Queue: 2 jobs
Job 1
Amino acid sequence: MLDPEEAVERIRAAFRPPEGHRTLHAKGAFYAGTFTATPEATALSRAGHLSGETIPVTVRWSNAGGNPRVPDPKPDIRGMAVSWKLPDGTATDLLGQTSPRFPTKDPEEFVALTEASVNPLRLPLFLLRHPHLVGPVLSGLTGGALASPVSFAEATFYPIHAYGWVDAAGTTTWVRYSFVPVATRADRLDETFTGPDRLREEMAARLARVPVEHDVRVQVAGPGHDPHDPTAVWKGARELLAGRITVTEAVPDPETEGAVVVFDPTRVVDGLELSDDPILRYRPAAYSESVSRRMQPRDR
Ligand code: HEM
């Protein structure tokens, strides 16, 4: 297994980011809002944030690459990281991105694909050598996962991994999330935003008028749906609405004041269970390594 320190070193070597920024998803901004679960979610999990009470959330929308100064119009996957602050003081996180499918179960292959994607000339050769990745990579390209959205408010984000929902009786149901925008083209602002930071500018203008909402939908695993494989497609899975995230305002990046905020997909609370998905299990060590690199003085 690739050492997480080496994984972060290799990704940083590919992007050559300035010190003090995230290794991936380096450009992003923080927002505050709330989440309210539906009774269907409450019935399937006893987790505190799924109780139906309105719970505060922190959201970070980002561009996936390692360059904190990348112009927003450049094609890239986008991220939506969400942290729920539960009434008992605990927290749980989900990290979504715009590609519905994750290409591999092997962390090293993900790192190699990331390295190859930075150089468009290397990518075709890499895919020739890894033909099983052609399908997932092409579905990302053709499905619009890399297109620069008009607004983060219009993008759908997929947290990829399955999580177990444990109900009051101790029964586990495996689910996979998506964050589906409530806003449509009809809700677009009259102004157009075209500059390098246009996604943040558009969001500021939109939030000055209305909150930005994403429905949290889940697919519920049925027979034959593997919760431990991040590349699995759950054909025919039942779907339900689990709740709604409502973002109301931009908030300052806590890291400019010396705090460190890490969204961790394995941060769960009672009522949630982690799968044995090898990508999910690998991520915390890579994120910790990225955080220690990020603690270096920030080079703007
Ligand atoms: C082996 C697989 C993966 C590796 C090595 C990896 C690596 C990283 C690293 C190093 C960071 C920066 C962490 C920090 O400094 O706080 C990051 C951030 C992020 N990753 Fe991953 N990642 C992987 C898989 C995924 C998957 C499957 C998703 C989506 C479902 C994802 C979504 C994100 C998001 C949204 C962020 C930004 C979090 C924020 O806004 O702070 N990553 N990733």
Job 2
Amino acid sequence: MQIAIIGAGVIGTATAWELLRQGKRVILLEGREGAGLGTSYANAGQLSYDYVAPLADPGVFHDLPKWLLNPSSPLRFRPRPDPRQWCWLAAFLKACNTSTAQASTKALLRLSYLSRDTLHAWLRETPIDFHHRDNGKLIAYRSPHLLEKARRQVAYQAGHGSAQRILDRREAVAVEPALANLGDALAGCVYTPTEEVGDCHLFTRGLFEHVRAHPSASVRTGAHVARLRTREGRVTGAQLDNGDIIEADHFVVANGLQSYDLLKTQGLTVPLYGLKGYSLSLPLPPDPPDGQSGGPPAAPSVSVTDYERRTVYARLGNVLRIAAMVDMGDSSPDIDPARVRHLKAEVRGSFPQLAIEQAEAWAGERPATPDGKPIIDRSRRFENLWLNLGHGALGFTLACGSAVLLNALMTNGRGPIDASPFGIR
Ligand SMILES: Cc1cc2nc3c(=O)[nH]c(=O)nc-3n(C[C@H](O)[C@H](O)[C@H](O)COP(=O)(O)OP(=O)(O)OC[C@H]3O[C@@H](n4cnc5c(N)ncnc54)[C@H](O)[C@@H]3O)c2cc1C
């Protein structure tokens, strides 16, 4: 069975690898010159297996005026005269209730644990150097009130297999001494010792090389799919910009945010919208020998999320990756200098010893569904068309599990976890 996969971001590449592992023949089509150059390029690097709660949560109604009115809010909403934006927003607001948020969290936890187990199994078979570390994650809270709210989420997730605990300020600084830079502003942390980090681009590129080397695979870069060709309820080919037609028995649409436009060519609509975010990559000098720095370390070593500022810090090799911002309604690929200035100012306020001016800025768009769950399913209209898209803020975390689930659905119609939450909506 020959399967064409469209898009070599982390999702498409992981899908290709799993299909090959399960004995299928694969052709992986990527529009750019290499793998992982889209949203998978410079994300926050979190393999955030226990931290999957969707953005759509009842607290949104309280925060919405701030998103609209405060230009330096970490979440910003710019209304556009665009029906796609308004449809997405209406579905998003509809998902902002406790029962939907909890059901999504439960489904996402199952997928993320599947993903973690899968990644570990793959790496045992096929090592990839992507600065992968498993030294835990701290969510830092400045407000005691929000820390209390987090305590309730921790209690909810504990019932679904999550091993998290609440640390007071002193305990948090003992785990990550760089948090002493925040002084009394730090109320406490949620600590998840099992969380991991890695460089998503290096992972995708490494996995892509394994796909390329596989005898049952062929890969094409610079192969942008302009449209799908269909006949009598089946996809017959993927037509490239240069007119070439790629034929296969099945087709998997895994081209991130651009899936929306590609599916539109066949009149299919998916609830996908881009939530733009920014990252800074800062090369770090070597750590001074223990006890010789005379103060707290300049940069955290454990992964840290500054909750109120929605800013994430991860060490990837000798680089500190800092990511933040959720901008809804800015679909240009441009880096907004005001957003980068604001992010650098936030970092300077928290970790003043960092030479943050030297950091390299990047922007990408999270391919988000309103309820925060990806779509991993077969098309209702074309029997050999499959979707693996809409991973929003969690694509790196969920990629391997999504690949396993899709392969299982293609093979025997059911997955190792309940696939229904990830069906077409
Ligand atoms: C600031 C920021 C921080 C983030 N942090 C994290 C994090 O810490 N952890 C986490 O799990 N996730 C994180 N994410 C989310 C994660 O990066 C995305 O969910 C993930 O990269 C999506 O992967 P993808 O493969 O679906 O899309 P992409 O990486 O965008 O890949 C799609 C690929 O398809 C190709 N393509 C597009 N159209 C076509 C076409 N027509 N024909 C052929 N090829 C095509 C593109 O060139 C691209 O290579 C973050 C995102 C952002 C923006």
